[in-house]
């Protein structure tokens, strides 16, 4: 699977002639490329070209004679920055890659304005969701995952059953609005994937991690994702009480509805999915990790059956829950959950 969109940094002196001969011409020969001026004002001291390919892909390249704020470990001086979801010209193959937060801020801000404008040209409806657009920009504009990640929100309501794209995307928009996960943008956006194949199971599971962050934040906890533990695994979150400093580990799993799996009924689906987690990465931790079993993919009737039966999930403590696009979450507990989630979950 390809990685989320990143910059390539090409040290050396660039000029319009060099850009034309070493970038534009190879792109035009291979894909058919139209070079043009950028849409937005450039950072001071930079020049740039925009490349739009006949296959719908695009790229940006900007350059300067003096990189006054280079990424950590890089030297200043003349340099060019490339970003795009098309093939990389051979002149840039051996360049280092950097995330949006690692390149000079004016370069990152300019490039993101260009990319967001292009995204909203392609998907005008996403303009109503600025936080979703910005947060997932590294995958919405990735080389292989652009179509699948956009389709996940556009055609599959971000994994919510019986919901419109506006309702599903609106839930994620409100989840991202407080900025809780902004510092982990590349990591968390990448969980949605950059595959050319649409994998609704994996993508829905990724959204469950955002749902968990929303629940923990609304309950008053500070969240840190991807916590490495001594077994060599990484668990989804550490939730810290800002008043006491007490911390708990949280792992999230998302059962699929009966129609999409071999389980005979929704209660069995919950038990089976949780068992996969508890016999793997949670086994060595005993009760030291709270398991969130997110049943958001279940239609209302399936969730009603789970809520009525309240099945064991072979791990304690655990929270079995279901979120709706409105933000309402209901669930039940198994074992002594060390987190007070009453402000975020309606217990049933």
What attributes characterize this protein structure?
single chain, 348 residues, alpha+beta, Trna Endonuclease, Chain: A, domain 1, 2 domains, seven-stranded mixed beta sheet, six-stranded antiparallel beta sheet, 10 helices, 13 strands, 33% helix, 21% strand, elongated, DUF5784
Architecture overview:
Helix 5 crosses helix 6. The strands form 2 sheets. Strands 7-8-9-10-11-12-13 form a 7-stranded mixed sheet. A 6-stranded antiparallel sheet has the order 2-3-4-5-1-6, sandwiched between helices. The radius of gyration is 23 Å and the shape is elongated. The protein has 10 helices and 13 strands. By secondary structure, it is an alpha+beta fold. It folds into 2 domains: 7-109; 166-347, Trna Endonuclease, Chain: A, domain 1, CATH 3.40.1350.120. The chain has helices spanning 16-30, 105-122, 130-135, 137-140, 146-156, 165-176, 185-190, 200-218, 266-278, 300-309, and strands spanning 7-11, 33-36, 46-53, 58-64, 79-84, 96-98, 222-228, 234-240, 247-253, 289-294, 318-323, 329-334, 346-347.
Distance between the termini: 40 Å
Query: What would you call the shape?
Result: elongated
The CATH architecture name of the largest domain reads 3-Layer(aba) Sandwich
Count of discrete alpha- or pi-helical segments spanning 4 or more residues: 10
Which regions are unreliable across 5 or more consecutive residues at pLDDT < 50?
Answer: none
Can you count the beta strands? 13
Task: Quickly name the level 1 CATH class of the largest domain.
Answer: Alpha Beta
CATH topology of the largest domain: Trna Endonuclease, Chain: A, domain 1
Helix percent reads 25-40%
């Amino acid at each position: 699977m390809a990685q989320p969109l990143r910059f390539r940094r090409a040290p050396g002196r660039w000029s319009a002639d060099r850009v034309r001969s070493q970038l534009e011409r190879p792109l035009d020969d291979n894909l058919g490329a139209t070079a043009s001026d950028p849409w937005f004002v450039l950072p001071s001291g930079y020049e740039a070209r925009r490349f739009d390919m006949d296959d719908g892909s695009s790229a940006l390249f900007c350059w300067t004679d003096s990189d006054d704020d280079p990424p950590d470990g890089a030297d200043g001086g003349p340099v060019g920055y490339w970003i795009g979801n098309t093939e990389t010209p051979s002149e840039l193959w051996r360049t280092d890659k950097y995330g949006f937060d690692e390149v000079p801020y004016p370069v990152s801000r300019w490039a993101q304005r260009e990319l967001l404008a292009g995204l909203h040209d392609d998907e005008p409806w996403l303009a109503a969701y600025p936080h979703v657009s910005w947060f997932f920009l590294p995958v919405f504009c990735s080389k292989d995952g652009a179509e699948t990640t956009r389709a996940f929100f556009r055609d599959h309501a971000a994994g919510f059953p019986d919901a419109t794209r506006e309702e599903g995307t609106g839930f994620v928009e409100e989840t991202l609005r407080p900025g809780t996960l902004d510092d982990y943008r590349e990591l968390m956006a990448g969980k949605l994937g950059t595959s050319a194949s649409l994998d609704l199971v994996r993508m829905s599971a990724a959204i469950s991690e955002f749902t968990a962050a929303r629940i923990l934040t609304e309950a008053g906890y500070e969240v840190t994702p991807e916590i490495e533990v001594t077994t060599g695994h990484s668990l989804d979150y550490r939730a810290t009480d800002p008043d006491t400093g007490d911390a708990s580990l949280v792992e999230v799993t998302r059962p699929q509805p009966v129609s999409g799996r071999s389980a005979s009924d929704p209660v069995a689906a919950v038990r089976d999915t949780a068992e996969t987690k508890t016999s793997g990465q949670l086994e060595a931790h005993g009760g030291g990790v709270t398991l969130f079993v997110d049943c958001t993919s279940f239609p209302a009737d399936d969730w009603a059956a789970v809520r009525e039966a309240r099945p064991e999930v072979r791990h304690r403590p655990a929270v079995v829950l279901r979120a709706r696009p409105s933000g309402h979450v209901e669930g039940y507990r198994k074992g002594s959950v060390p987190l007070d989630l009453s402000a975020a979950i309606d217990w049933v």
